[in-house]
Write a structure and sequence with these properties.
This protein is mainly α. The chain has 19 helices and no strands. Helix 1 packs antiparallel against helix 2 and helix 4 crosses helix 14. The longest helix is centred in the last third of the chain and has 41 residues. It is globular and about 75 Å long. The two termini are 14 Å apart. The relative contact order is 0.08.
Length: 475
Amino acid sequence: MYPFLIDEVTVLQKQAIYLQNLAVLQAQQEMQARAMVTGGMFSNYANLNDFDPEVLATQLLMMRKCREAILESPNHPDSYAMLATVYGLSTLEEGLKTQVANASLARYIYRLPPSPIKGRISAYATTVTRRMFEFYLQMGAGDLAQDALTQCINYSEEELQRFQDISAADGISEEEEKQLSELKQNMDLLNQMSSKLQQQLNQQLAAYESEIPAAKDPLEKIGIAKRYGLYLVAKTHLDEIDFSQPDPLIYTYLAERVDIAIMTGDLETAYEVLQQLNNQNFQREFVNQAAINAFGNARVRLFQVQFPDPKNAPRVDQSKFDLRSVFERHQRVVALAFGDFEQISTIFERDLQENARQQAEIETQYPFVAMTVPEVETTQPYLAIRAMAMSLNPYEIMINNIWAFHFEMRQFYISSLRSRAVAQMTLAQIRLEQGEITKAITALRTIENMPDRPEIASYRRNAKKLADFITTTRK
């Protein structure tokens, strides 16, 4: 059964299909991984020689069933954990699928009761809370990490108690005794980590409280709170802002509101804010050049408040200071996590049109990027070695500079082609999950008809294989 076929399945059947397909999917992906050569962010498609459309079909079926379960019971956390698992295993663009998986796990945490409720068991509680504890620590959100760890401890205690009750009633084998010992050791470790983290948070809170009186505005208060890992405190400062009033910093505040909403699993708020930004009345009242110009400066100031010591500040992609890049990055994650396929498809299609336009301009201005020049490339290593020894003659310097420019432009062109192929494949999969089969095939045929270059040969081959598979399956 493939997702290209419309079918009605009960809730119990959905769960059975999910569990069965998950095992099949993991086994198939393990086999495919052996054939995968590392290729950075493009490894999903570029070097997957044994790309199997049936694996993708299984993934899409599972995604659909997870979304149906969420629609039927939106406040039950387990469906979000299922959706995160499927996206984590998917062949979508690496960065996007990871963000969607993390956002879905945050939604799980957001809906999970702080402590177990009698008679209600969540199969994923200890696993997800432990993973999100580690994720929040990595992101520098100490208070969110502590909350996730507290939940992990509460559910681990319940799991341990249930194991002990069963053992007391039915007796315990040697293997079960070993498992019980491991559970107790795990509990001790979790409690130790919680105690240490709470001590650190108390120190961070004291430091925050000593600095906050000097903050000039909510922007600096948010930056100070985030510097000390107090994301929930930063959220309270955002809650104090009146978003109905014009403010040159409004975009910066809205970006922070979306960011923290995604981190805490409150995607409903994030989605609402992003939809508000698309509202024409909002744009007439608030979108002006002053606000757009202020956004970049405010984001830089926020970053400097959060990381006052340049030596310890992380390297930052400049796109994080660009208004469109920031909100489109959020829109991609929130729209896909929510299942707003039209919105995310619109973003991808617009970016693809821009990519195609830029490629056409490059090919027109620099025709050589679409060609190979073996003679120049063959002489480059020799020239590079002599250049390092500073022994090139004027003619060789000229040739070396020409080759360097040629190489740089070709690499940019090839990278652009690969990015376009990945985006088209992602768009095709989004259309498939949406049920827009014809549009998905169109996206795949677009990849197939891209320039016949060795750098994207596997993209074109896999797109053809998938398009042919869908066409055959639909007959």
